[in-house]
Amino acid sequence: MDSLLLLGEILMINLVLSGDNAMVIAMASKNLPEKHRRQAVWWGAAGAVGLRCILTFAAVLLLKIPYIEAGGAILLLWISFKLLLEEEGELKIEGSSSVWKSVRTILLADFIMSLDNVLAIAGLAKGDLALIVIGIAISIPIVVWGSGIIVGWLHRFPVLVFIGAYILAYTAGNMLLQDAKFGAVISFMLPTFHSMLPMVLGILVVVTGMLKRRMVSAG
């Protein structure tokens, strides 16, 4: 049951963090004929699965080093705030004229933009390589197949973004506590309340995002 819950969380954070990736996939292959477009998208997806697995395995190993996990947690917490607070930027990806050029563009963009996904999955899976592979293998084809649909979902159902941001912040809190050195410092400074840190960070991110969006809509 715990494994199914973790797999669900991995799928959720991939969904909310892959909006940009989905747009890149759509834009990189837009100039190709329909048949070649499908080839480029699925070859790009297959390469992205392998790339994400390698990067996540590396992250799992690196996060075992003292203070590295705490640093990753702080970066992941920043990403969760950024997800809710930052205005959307324009993606400038030119469509490619051949299958392999499109695949190369998709892989390069995925490599550049996958840091948030990799950190989140590595933090959530806690070294369970089977969960990592299954989560990535399922989520990337979903993103590819629904590259246009996902972006619409995230705009139409903002609650998905808030849920994803909460999971990211909660994961960051757990990573802070799990760090061999930094976790001990937190436990010493907050002996009674340290176990509540992940939930408090998740709520803080969601409330901050709600306030920001309310201010924007009121202005």
UniProtKB/TrEMBL annotation:
Domain of life: Bacteria
Keywords: Membrane, Transmembrane, Transmembrane helix
Transmembrane parts of this sequence: 6-28, 40-61, 131-154, 159-177, 183-207
Membrane-protein topology: Multi-pass membrane protein
Subcellular location: Membrane
The keyword Thylakoid belongs to this UniProt entry's keyword annotation: no
Protein family membership: Belongs to the TerC family.
Main location per the UniProt record: membrane
Gene source species: Paenibacillus phytohabitans
Protein name: YjbE family putative metal transport protein
